[in-house]
């Protein structure tokens, strides 16, 4: 299945830290800059429970249903969908305290296995208020800085 990244926020303690090779925005064009961001944090913590709570709130407000949840300290994977949606959202959170790097990413997978067409991404971002969700995920991602 092809995944389409909708938003991704990385937190690092050193703004000059090398780019994460797993960053979905690596190699992207100008459009990628609107979907992916990097935040500087004085320190990072394991914010798994905050990310999960934020994701669950968004799932409820978006009238979605979590169909899969896997959680370990520093790692979270959630799939969410609803009957009339021809795909599902995937929320992934990873923190690597030794590397002083954390990332939360939202992907969309179409059920037919193809990637979203560029013209359909913006309506999906608006319909599911991904911009607002990104702001809340960013706050949760930076929980170790408080």
Automatic annotation (TrEMBL):
It comes from the Bacteria. Residues 1-29 are annotated as: Disordered. This is Polyketide cyclase/dehydrase/lipid transport protein. It comes from Granulicella aggregans.
